[in-house]
């Protein structure tokens, strides 16, 4: 039995699943990028980026409880990334955990949330100046993308293991052969 995204099984009140998650992801990513363009001279990027992220999380195809639970923490984490130092990369763990929650990943997939912390510790030793902020943000973005795919892979493994356990013959299901 092939694995199916749990969120795709939901009955949606409006729109189609694929369009909603692609549009939601695009709004979240563009919004987070716009927030990172914010400075004292470009404050409108903060407003536009925050609104885009809000819209992105709001249209993701999942339950309203999950969307509501992740929206403010994920937006706050993207704003906290404005510190532009390597140690602030730990805030990448928040939108990653939010993504895993919205995508209804099993608990085992949350193991990937430790990756932004590890990369943050590693980069804190290498990236020391504000001029190297692009390295931190680029590495953090790459880590969050790889981690999200890693979470999906762990979900696939967990589903396969569960399916193998459930489909394995038991003592009661074995029928004796008739001579």
Please provide a written account of the structure:
- By secondary structure, the chain is an all-alpha fold.
- The chain has one domain.
- The protein contains six helices and no strands.
- Helix 3 packs antiparallel against helix 4 (93-102) and helix 5 runs antiparallel to helix 6 (133-167).
- It is flat.
Number of helices: 6
Give unreliable regions as ranges: none
Span from first to last CA?
34 Å
Classify the secondary structure makeup into a structural class: mainly alpha
Overall spatial form: flat
Let me know the average pLDDT. Answer: 86
Q: Topology as H/E string?
A: HHHHHH
Measured as a percent range, the helix fraction is 55-70%
Tell me how many strands there are: 0
Cα radius of gyration in angstroms: 20 Å
Major sheet size, sense and barrel closure? none
Supply the number of structural domains.
1
Strand content: under 5%
Q: Which secondary structure elements does this structure contain, and how are they paired or packed?
A:
Layout: H1 17-36, H2 44-59, H3 64-80, H4 93-102, H5 114-126, H6 133-167
Salient structural properties:
6 helices; mainly alpha; flat; 179 residues
Put the structure in a nutshell:
This protein is an all-alpha fold and 179 residues long. The chain contains 6 helices and no strands. It has helices spanning 17-36, 44-59, 64-80, 93-102, 114-126, 133-167.
């Amino acid at each position: 039995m092939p694995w199916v995204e749990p969120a795709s099984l939901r009955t949606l009140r409006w729109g189609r699943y694929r369009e909603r998650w692609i549009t939601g992801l695009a709004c979240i990513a563009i919004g987070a990028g716009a927030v990172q363009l914010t400075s004292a001279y470009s404050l409108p990027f903060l407003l536009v980026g925050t609104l885009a992220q809000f819209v992105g999380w709001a249209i993701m195809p999942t339950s309203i409880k999950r969307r509501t639970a992740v929206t403010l923490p994920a937006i706050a984490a993207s704003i906290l990334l404005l510190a532009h130092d390597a140690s602030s990369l730990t805030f990448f763990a928040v939108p990653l955990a939010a993504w895993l929650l919205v995508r209804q990943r099993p608990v085992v997939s949350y193991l990937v949330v430790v990756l932004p912390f590890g990369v943050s510790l590693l980069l804190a030793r290498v990236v020391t100046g504000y001029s190297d902020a692009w390295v931190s943000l680029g590495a953090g973005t790459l880590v969050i993308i790889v981690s999200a795919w890693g979470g999906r892979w762990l979900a696939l493994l967990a589903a396969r293991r569960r399916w193998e356990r459930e489909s394995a013959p038991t003592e009661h299901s074995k029928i004796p052969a008739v001579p």
